[in-house]
User: Fold this.
Amino acid sequence: MVNISAEIPAGFSLATVHAGFKYKNRPDLALIVSQSPARCAALFTTNLFQAAPVTVAMDNLKKSPVIRAILVNTGQANACTGDMGISNCRKTLEILADLLNMDPEDILPASTGVIGDHLKMDLFEKNLPRLVQNLGSSTGEEAAKAIMTTDTFPKTSSCRAQLSNSMVKFWGMAKGAGMICPNMATMLGFILTDLRIDHKLWQKILADSVNRSFNALTIDGDTSTNDCVLALANGQCKAEISGDEDLNQVVSALDKICSELAYKIVMDAEGGTKVLRVEVKGAKDNSQAKMAASAVGNSPLVKTAMYGQDPNWGRIVAALGRSGAQFNPSKVRVSLAGVEIFSSGRPLEMDRDSVFEPLLKGRDVDIQIHLGAGPGSYTLLASDLTEKYIEINARYRT
Amino acid sequence: MVNISAEIPAGFSLATVHAGFKYKNRPDLALIVSQSPARCAALFTTNLFQAAPVTVAMDNLKKSPVIRAILVNTGQANACTGDMGISNCRKTLEILADLLNMDPEDILPASTGVIGDHLKMDLFEKNLPRLVQNLGSSTGEEAAKAIMTTDTFPKTSSCRAQLSNSMVKFWGMAKGAGMICPNMATMLGFILTDLRIDHKLWQKILADSVNRSFNALTIDGDTSTNDCVLALANGQCKAEISGDEDLNQVVSALDKICSELAYKIVMDAEGGTKVLRVEVKGAKDNSQAKMAASAVGNSPLVKTAMYGQDPNWGRIVAALGRSGAQFNPSKVRVSLAGVEIFSSGRPLEMDRDSVFEPLLKGRDVDIQIHLGAGPGSYTLLASDLTEKYIEINARYRT
Assistant:
């Protein structure tokens, strides 16, 4: 049970297999195993329709937040599958626990794929032994490939943090391309570290980091039934946090992993050509800043304008005006790609087409907004909206 | 000053002219004049960025809700135009007031078109005299054409109500195709009646009727800086409301006008091929029903599924689950085009493709949802989302 990728934190092993759930010629079942019990911080979808693996994972974590393995399948989301969905999910954990010589409660399940379809139990039974045999033979990249649905590339991120007593490794992978497309349900994130850390602190810094990254992005405003982020800390490197400087190092490392994965999800947005960074400052408070940023980042008109490389400040201010955030319209300032385009209730005089033509060509576009109403701020990553998004989502059949 | 269309209520005259503001070969300036002072009920955009004509109309109505005329231009929205926008707007009313021998405060302005562009004052000066000369020579259909922007057809509605002492006429026109597209800012509605009615009651029943119609539709979730609905009652037919039966007749007539115009706006949605009627029942209360209906009607994934004629119940329930409405997922029932497709947390067993293929072909699709949580209900009209919407809004240049 050694790992072949240098970036994977100590004591974790990965495996993948092509079980044939849905996609051809692509691994579709992934396993993460920690050599020693790992503290698991976890965040789950807030959608009222919770998929079976979400329910089972929450149950297992309630019994104990100390976890040994994560099993992820793609193809079937096992959502809206009733009692049979729950018992199928538990059954897969029981088979795997037997093979790994663990308790089923030591393993967390995650599924992504079509809502309403049941897990293909015969394929689990046939392939789980092969998966366990493969343990340690898969790279991080291969594991990230095995959890993709409509994703066009695997999404991983890794970094190291130098603490006062040791070096710690962090590694993460995520999938997601429609944010959050309930058919291909949807955003999953897995983070591994060999840090030794108190469970409560681990949960808190994960939640903060996810709020700044995965929760601060939007592709189409929809959220799925299967979303989860699971973070395992197995303590293998013996490093512990001692003092604020160490804590800052860990928080930065986790932020780097989460924000890099979040960026890659938006970069891979269904049909997307842009990553819009919507930064709102000067709101009454942070929650009003979030309302303003969300209105802009979710506006189909802003998204289509950015796709069309049109410096359409009118759509941005109109979205701000309906966002629910409170401000004086004459105090609002808007910059696009670093150039101020609107202030004092009026567009600035300039030859907009020639100024913005070169600036809006690239993938990354910054939309900076100052509401002039207070100290609140919020930053959101958003995709644009294209014909390709429509095509993907109108042609996809249930 | 007589009117040439039989459906126009007594004492109102219409005029249109091609001033050349933006569109070629299409009238773009419209005038409504009431022979006698009319009580005006009015509703305006809630967007914090208010266009100059909205500010001026609200000012004039504050002085007195008794109005003689409405002047509407298309091409320039006169929004985000600062103090100059306000003074330009007032100037157009002064010129017109001189020509009509009225006070400028007797006239309400409305503008639709590109945000940020100033009114073309030279064209107003040149064409207002011609417009006044034309008074009485335009049909309702022609007036409705003169207020269009990206609309593909003029939107009018008319009806009569038999009150106990007389027959009353109602007529309305509206424009709107992106709901609400801030470039082509955007939804305007004008309603005329020869009823004699108390102003407070008129305002109240208009507000109720608009809540059930114009406020209960969504194309892209965006709202504009120029939206308004103005309703004039000039008392020319001498009919008054006496008793509840008469009031019901008037409310029904106004509902018919507003809902017919609202339907036509959704029918003309930019790139739209469907009119989705999202009916939510069984919510905890009406506001939760509205949250649920809005989440479904605004979901890009539901909209693209309906465009693709795909009975994709998964996207509907996932939108419900994130809507913020509270319910027990196992009690939710969903019908599509009259056929129950989801209940008890599970899709119903059927050959979905063959059942729904004929049902999802037409323009009108009903999505009926019962949340099983209380007496609240809400119905929303929504468009679908197509490649054509993207094309229109990505290619349109500021």
Q: What stands out?
A: Chain B touches chain A through 65 residues (CB under 8 Å). Confidence is low (pLDDT under 50) at residues 179-184 of chain B. The domain at 12-267 of chain B is CATH 3.60.70.12 (L-amino peptidase D-ALA esterase/amidase).
